[in-house]
Amino acid sequence: MKKVTWLAAALCAAAAANAEETLWTKYQHWEVMPVLTEDPEAGNNVRQQMDFTKPWHGPWLINPSTTGMTVGMITRIRVGAAIEWREKGTENWTRRWNATCGTIDYSEDVHLFHLQGLKPGTTYEYRFVTAMSGLETAYTGIVVGREMYTFTTMDPKREKYRVWATADFHGGARLNLDPMYERTEASTADFYLLLGDNVEDRFASDAMFYITYGYMDDVCRLWGKAKPTVFVRGNHDASGQHIGQWGRFQGHPSGHNYFSFTQGPVLWVALDTNREWQNSPAGTEQMKAYQQEQLDWLRALKKTDEWKRAKYRIVCNHFGWPADIGESPNLGADIAKELNDVTPEGRIHLFLAGHTHVYTRHDPGAAELKAFPAGKPNKKGVLPPPYASKEDLTQYKYCQVIGRQCETLTLDVSPEKIVVRSRDWRKPGLPDYDKFELYPDGSVKDLK
Ligand SMILES: [Fe+2]
After folding, report:
1. Which domains, from first to last, does the chain contain?
2. pLDDT, tens digit, for every residue of 29-49?
């Protein structure tokens, strides 16, 4: 939603709910200072001043696939950086420096490593290596990191697993992400979906500040070092002076921000439609070109074996169609049409989105929306119904769920069905907002 005070709203909501039960017993605050490290072998183990192998922010894992993973981290200063990885249980590390045109890049403090050619469903260990240029210091030794991390690649044979999804916490992670995570068994998920508007406001003139302190540090503290996250880009994540820096922190090896991957019976598709780039003729021109690229990519994806083999296809995007009814500037009318395919080999089973801050579920072709949180309209008066005609609703032949602000959605995947559950983590007993089963033929069964 286009409003700069969503975090304030989230914090006020927290205070109101706090009257019922104390959920908020901690929050994250940011300070940069030396950390006292107790060590009987301190004389031997004190770190070199030029040791930058322990990330200042991160590491984070993105772009998961059956054969790849992107690892990101930020060092305290600009430095040459490499990643080392090996299959868990093996001895030898493979090392790769971040290089530009053949030379180590000493000019970056944000380091992304796109690992490819990995084995599916395999656990890897990884660590970082740093070095300074001889043009900057006499201390040019290679420093190998002491901290070791792991990740596991996606597995087409993994039949049962959980995914945890949230949306629109607008920088409130430092207060809300811990109780959301702890109360909804999020630690049991294989990976995580953040459906956009993760930053409090927008990238303004300091993307690193808004990304790290807005959500990345909290994500990494809770799960992000060991399990991947799909960061779908919301309108707030895609606006501000530093709009062009998203890829520096969360880029995909394709150079685009839309992608797909398979885990077990599900093909997961992340789209990147947006509207914030229409602030100039050039921006509008590029947005239309990018939307066309995605449409072409989606059409090609539907012809692949990966798409056809998938028992379920789940598409994630910040905008769902309630924000698009009418001229459909955000999702893109052609993309929406492409998704609205009723053939067994073409259909999608679920569309996950955020943005409106109000939970809604629409079953395939239904004339009404379900699972409103006994609610009031949001500030735009968009919900609850009627906000769309019956014809508008019935035209959509796939299930769509739009998460509310600070959503806590679990998806328990199995070949027979996917159980989707939204719970109110703020209330005692965590009452269900919604619960339903999704089947391979695209049908839905209400459990609430
Ligand atoms: Fe939004």
Report:
1. 49-152 (2.60.40.10), 161-446 (3.60.21.10)
2. 988 888 899 999 999 999 999
